[in-house]
Structures are given as C-alpha cells and as structure tokens.
Amino acid sequence: MSGAWSCSRDQKRGCSERTPVVRAPGWGRARTKQLIDTRESTAWGKSQAFVFPSPTAPLAQEDTKSSRPAVRDVSEELSRQLEDILNTYCVDASQEGPGEDGGQSEPPEPEEAEKCRSESPRNGDQEMGGPEMNGEKESTKGSEEFRPGEECGERDQKKAQEKKKAKGLGKEITLLMQTLNTLSTPEEKLAALCKKYAELLEEHRNSQKQMKILQKKQTQLVQEKDHLQSEHSKAILARSKLESLCRELQRHNRTLKEEGVQRAREEEEKRKEVTSHFQVTLNDIQLQMEQHNERNSKLRQENMELAERLKKLIEQYELREEHIDKVFKHKDLQQQLVDAKLQQAQEMLKEAEERHQREKDFLLKEAVESQRMCELMKQQETHLKQQLALYTEKFEEFQNTLSKSSEVFTTFKQEMEKMTKKIKKLEKETTMYRSRWESSNKALLEMAEEVRRLGQAAGAER
C-alpha cells in the first residue's frame, strides 16, 4: 500500500513538472476510475493461478512457418518460369512485328492475296500435324514443305504468262500486217512501224516498272511469310513449355493437398490432447479462485481508499491547471499586442524610408543637371575669354592703325560694346547657375543628415 502511494506521488510530481495540458471537464473522474480498474486487475492477476498457454498454437505456428517457405518457393519458381516464357516469346514477337521497311509496304494485289490464302491452309495443316513437344523441328519441316509448293505455283504462273504473251503477240502481229497492207507507200509503212515501235517501247517501260513494283511486293510477302513462320515456331515452343509447367503445377497441387490432409489429422489429435490438459488446469484454477476470494475483498477495500485520495489530488491538480491556463492566455494577449505595435512601427519606418528615397533621387537628379549646366557655362566662359583675348589683340592692332582710319575704329568700338554686353549677360547666367548648384548641394547635405538621423532612430527603436 505504501509502495502504491509513493508511486502515485512520483507520478503526480512528474505531471506537475511537465508543461500544462488542457484537460476535459470529466477527465479527473475518468482517470480515477481507470486507476481503480487497473488496481483491481493487478490484484486479481496476483491472486489467480497462471493459465498455461495452449501447446497446439506454437506447434501449429511452427508447422505453418516451416511449410509456408517451401510452398512459396515452389510457387515463386513456377511464376518466374512463366514470366520468362512470356517475356522471351511474347516480347520478341512484339519487337519483330513491324517489317524491315518500317511498315510502309504496299498492300498485295488481289490475285497474289488469293494465292497466299489458298496456299497457307495447306502449309498450316502440314505444320500443325506433327507432335507439340519438338516445335523447332516442326517449324523447319513446315518451311521446307512450303518452299516446293511455292516454286510449283511460280512455275505455273510463268507458263500461263508465256502462253498469254504468245497469244497476244500473234494477234498484234496480224493486226500490224493488216494496217501495213492498207498503206500504199513504204514511207508511210515505215512511219507506222516507228510509231508502233514507240508505243511498244513505252508499254515495255511501263511493264518493267510494274515488274519492279511486283518484285518488291514479292520480297515483302516473303519476309512476312518468314516472320509468321518464326512466330509460329516460337508459339509452339511456348506451348510445350507451358504444358510442362502445368504438369508441374498439378503435381505440386496434389502434394500440397496430401500434406494438408495429413496436417489436419495431426492437428485434430493435438487438439484432443490439449482439451484434456486444459480441463485439468481449469479445475486447478477454480480451486485457487475459491482460496483467494477473501484476499481480493481486502485488496478491493484498499483500492477504494486509494481512489478517494487520488480523487482529491486530481481535483487540486485541475484547479492548478486552470490557473496556469489563465496565466498563459494573459501572456499570449500581451505578446499579440506587442507584435501589433512592432508591426505598425515597422510599416511607418518603411514609409518614411520610401519617401526619403524618392526625395533623395529627385535632389540627386537636380544636382547632376545643375552641375552639368555649370560645366557648360564654364566652357562657354573660357571660350568667351579666349575670344576676348583675341579681340584685345585685334584692338591693339586697331589702336596702332587708328591714325589710318577713324571709321574702322568706330566699328570696332561698336563690336566691343556688343561683346561686353554679351560677356555681362553670360556672367549673370553663370552666377545664377552657381547659386542653384550651391543650393542643391546644401539640400542634398541636409537630406543625408536627415537619413542618418532616421537610421539612428530606427536602430534605437529596434
């Protein structure tokens, strides 16, 4: 009892040291009931005798564990062989399906298609007539039997074509002689012969072109025939291998069925033994239960007392958790207020920096423009000074020659007055641009000082 009390105090201390967790309103009562139930279950377990596990369970598990890998190995081996057969015979056929010409072969003529159809059933019957186990030998025999029939058909076709050609030539010769007899002069006969020769030459060329096309179709049909024969031989091999696999699967299924029947008999015998042993142990447990009823009643009374104490402690703990939750909520509100103030100050600082940057860019542009104008005025001033020096030299020359011509002196004086006016005007403009440049520099310095002061203020706030 003291041990249970110390354990509950340690648990209470560990819970108080952890971070507070918000609990449901009825959590204390549910936790108290759970602890009471666990206490009673531990007391009941101490008072009861140990129930021996059923020995059939581990034996059955061991048998199933030992038999499962063997079954799995055989099934995996058979499935692997089946996949190999499908990969070797189906994938090769799918890869070799399109012809060498890239599927662009022209369709055969109707007469040739009918001949192929008439010859293919005979050859197919000859190939399928043999046994199924020796697929390669049958395929070679079928191909050898197919070739003589094909050669006979070609010879018959050639003979029929030669007969047709002979008949056609006889008719054409008679018609040609009749047309030549109708003509009177040998020049007309020669012209008619030349014309007929040109027509025959054109027909010969057309027949040569058709013959090339038919030869190309014949080669394509031969290739298709060879491809179909190879596919047929592969299918026969696959069929033989699949039949052997089916036999192995049937044999494996029979062995599995026999093993299952034998294992069921053994399990039935073990179950009978275990039921008898279980009945004996059940009687012993009933005797021990009767002996420990009094001890269980005492432990139940102790559990009720401990539950009352634990209930009081849980109520105190719930009050403390409520107080801690209120404190945390107050802290969260304060933190949110501080974050809002900080965000507002950052936004104000950002707006001030943007406004200051715009003013700074404007003043810099004005300063650059005024400096450029000042440089331009300086260049004009130097140019005018050079002109003034030139004119002073000319004035000295004119002063030397003043005695010679008074008219020249008057004109020069007028020009000098004009130049002096122009110089005064330019000096006024230079002074004006210089004052503007000084004012812009002064404003730029003031802006830099303001930026530095704002940066220091922002750093102090942070």
UniProtKB/TrEMBL annotation:
Residues 190-366, 409-436 form a coiled coil. The keyword Plastid does not apply. InterPro entries: Taxilin_fam. Residues 62-83, 113-125, 134-160 have a biased composition (Basic and acidic residues). It comes from the Eukaryota. Pfam families: Taxilin. This is Taxilin alpha. It comes from Bubo bubo.
